[in-house]
Amino acid sequence: MQFVRIGDTVISHRVHGLDSKKPAILFINSLGTDLRIWDKVVADLSSDFTLILFDKRGHGLSDLGQPPYRIEDFADDAIGLLEHYGISQVVLCGLSIGGLISLSIFDKRPDLVRGIFFADTAHKIGTPDFWETRIRAVLDNGIGSILDPIMSRWFTAPYRRPENADYRGYCTMLERQSAEGYAGTCAAIRDADFTETARRINVATLCVVGEEDGSTPPELVRSLANLIRGSQFEIIPGAAHLPCIEAPSVFLRLLRRFLSTLPGVLNG
């Protein structure tokens, strides 16, 4: 684990294979998770790419900062991290809120972005009432009070078997996040609408989604793809909101195929 201060916030992160000659990928994970959700994906990529993973403020080992947040706060943290390592161009791989953060990064610094791999995300997610209800539940009763409905959106029923130790581990990951950080991040999603930014994207993009995603269903992710000229769209069978965990081999195959289409990026 590595740490760096971006502005007034210490950001926990990992960098694999830092090499100016390698194309760089920035992985941006979902609400209520930390950078370990990418472990099954990055192991296969580290020899060919510089990989940057980080915990959003209010998550994992990063500072809480000043919640409630804006998506732009997370984008500024990500941009600061790239600048810290001297990375001038990057492929963004954003999952759920990570996709909103990717949109904000493109909005702020399009010069940094050579391609975007959107996973289980959209230009606008949920309604203000939905997020207000979630915020109140977490602040009043803790994250554990919403564990079961969240898990039913994150994972398919076969994955949620009681005997699946991995599933129990991801339940613990969610429960151990900061309630203030989680609620503050919900507020950022509540207030985010990147519809116009999506229409302006002029780099290669692929939008993927788990077939059984209960948080950002396939039709919502397809609506994002429809906003972006030339974007591609793929559904991952046998997965819900976190296909990088439930279907890592398919997720990785799609990511590698996408990377191979980008000018100057190694063939997958």
Average of per-residue pLDDT values: 96
Number of domains: 1
Query: What percentage of residues falls in helices of 4 or more residues?
Result: 40-55%
By secondary-structure content and strand pairing, the structural class works out as: alpha/beta
The backbone outline, from C-alpha atoms, is: globular
Low-confidence stretches: none
| CATH-level-4 superfamily name | Alpha/Beta hydrolase fold, catalytic domain
Alpha carbon gap, first and last residue: 27 Å
Beta percentage is: 15-25%
Number of strand elements? 8
Question: Biggest sheet: strands side by side, in what order?
Answer: 1-2-4-3-5-6-7-8
CATH class category? Alpha Beta
Strand-and-helix sequence, N→C?
Answer: EEEHEHEHEHHHHHEHEHH
Q: Count every helix, treating DSSP H or I runs of 4 or more residues as helices.
A: 11
In CATH terms, what is the architecture?
Answer: 3-Layer(aba) Sandwich
| Major sheet attributes | 8 strands, mixed
